[in-house]
Amino acid sequence: MLYSMSIATVTVRMDTELKQQAENLFDEIGLNMSSAITVFVKAAVREGRIPFELAADPFYSPANQARLRRSINQLTAGLGQPHELVPDA
């Protein structure tokens, strides 16, 4: 069965270097940017989610930021503990 598919244009803004890296990768795979994005969107729609795990950098988690603030406050109050550096193996 043949059917007509309407095509929509999507504009995406990204860092120039990231775009070039992506184009190089997709070229190695045999895809262009448009096809690669279409593959991603089809997988997201099919799975009903982003088709890979997304995770925030734990450094920026509220718990870690609170710990860093406590450590900084201790150091500025003169409560820091000196320690020996571990030598390189």
Q: Any overview of this molecule?
A:
With 89 residues, the protein is an all-alpha fold. The chain has a domain at 16-76. Helix content is 49%, strand content 0%. It is built from three helices and no strands. The protein starts with 15 loop residues before the first helix and ends in a 13-residue tail after the last helix.
Structure summary:
The chain is an all-alpha fold and 89 residues long.
Total helical elements: 3
- Report the sheet-strand fraction: under 5%
CA-based shape: elongated
Helix-strand makeup class: mainly alpha
The helix fraction, in percent, is: 40-55%
Quick tags:
mainly alpha, 89 residues, 49% helix, 0% strand, single chain
Question: Which secondary structure elements does this structure contain, and how are they paired or packed?
Answer:
Blueprint: H1 16-29, H2 33-47, H3 62-76
